[in-house]
Amino acid sequence: MAYGSSRGMRAYVNRVFDMERRFNALSEGRINPKIPQGAVLDTWFWGFAKKLPSTEQVGALLNDPRWRRHLGLEQEQGGSPDTAARVLDELLVDEVNELALEVFFAARRAGVLKDGGPYGLRCAVIDMNELFKSEKIHCSHCQEREKTVGEGTDKRVIKEYYHQAVALVWAGEIAWPIGWELLRPGEGELTAAWRLLSRLLPRLSKSLDLVLSDALYCCRDFFKLTLAHHVGGLAICSGQTEMDQEMDLFVREETPQMGTSHVARWEMVSEAWTKEVKSPLRVLHYENLAASKSYRHTRKQLRFVTTAKIEMMPLSQGWGTGRARWVIENGTFNILTQDYNLEHNYHHTTTAILTLLVLRSLGHCVSKAYWRFAAARSKNAPRSFLSWWKEVLEEDWVRYLDGALVEPAVLRSG
């Protein structure tokens, strides 16, 4: 196939990201296992790349003689949906987190994630996502709430269990989750976010210019944390700070700068939090004056606070940069939730859930990376990722599996 194949994708993923070797290098927590851990994780990963919706289908793939031959598995080595799930429970959280970070760095070294991106800066977005909702299955680390189900006389209140996780996502042509942090019971988003940033920013200070966030992060601790690791911070204004009062007055009294995009721009430097943050903060306010139809929901105002100096982020660039987080939220999180079944539960332990998040993220991201790689070399490649995915990872995948019955087994290195 001129614009890619399942065989070519597997070879590309192992050549560029060294994925399957990394799976084999993770510590084995089982005693006398029948089936190698690496083979099970390979199956999870490629199952997610294929968007398999359930544990049962992952288990069916693990038992498929064609796929087993591609993995080099013998018949006596077993494999089942339950075995696939148990492998996730036995992994080490630190190693799973390190795996996610190492693959991100591999993508950076290979040029898959380029400097600058569509916003001119090396940006990452931090935000929370809710996942794995269930009315029955839960663990000791689940969040819980009450909800009303049924109608009329059948209406009743039941408990719903769920997990939440904070993600740091690279904002570029491929929105790439760099790391995940699960919230603990009764914990707020910011507490988990500080753990995630404290773990990742020391390793990312040379790879990031700016961390983007929503209004919840518009607080002194966020800017102190990013500055401590020599990374810029940007937060949407909460509307409740001293800086908002200063900017409201500034907008009323000062004439804005105007750009070619009909966006009025105001900028001021605030000393309100200098004592705690140890740095003045820039406050940027934008108003879109262009006429638009109401059903398009065109954003009219944007105001945010940032530690980024004007040399890094000029006033004219702030409108596009500040809106980057909505691209991530409406793109990556929605795609992972809808297309990769983020709400479907496989195994309810925190280690398993974290591993699923990492594997799903990687499955989605490397698929897009290979699409760009394969499509760039062909004039006939489908222009949309969805069209390409259906042809390569739906149609060609069957041919790839069938090929194992008539060709020598493919080495697991690709």
Keywords:
Transposase Inhibitor Protein From Tn5, Chain A, domain 1; about 425 residues; alpha+beta; about 20% strand; 10-stranded mixed β-sheet; disordered C terminus
How would you name the oligomeric state of the polypeptide chains in this document?
Answer: single chain
Q: Nearest-angstrom radius of gyration?
A: 24 Å
- Sketch the topology as an H/E string, one letter per element: HHHHHHHEEEEHEHEHEEHEEHHHH
Strand content: 15-25%
Number of helices: 15
Query: What's the pLDDT, averaged over the residues?
Result: 86
**Sheet/helix structural class:** alpha+beta
User: Main beta sheet, described?
Assistant: 10 strands, mixed
Helix content: 40-55%
What coarse outline follows from CA principal-axis ratios? Answer: globular
**Unreliable spans:** 409-414
Count of DSSP strands: 10
Distance between the termini: 17 Å
Walk me through the structure.
The protein has helices at residues 6-17, 19-25, 37-49, 55-63, 65-71, 81-89, 93-109, 189-204, 220-228, 242-253, 274-277, 318-322, 324-338, 350-375, 385-403, and strands spanning 123-134, 143-149, 156-171, 176-182, 210-213, 232-236, 257-258, 263-270, 281-288, 301-306. The protein is of the alpha+beta class and 414 residues long. Among the domains are: 6-95 and 345-403, no CATH class; 210-311, Transposase Inhibitor Protein From Tn5, Chain A, domain 1.
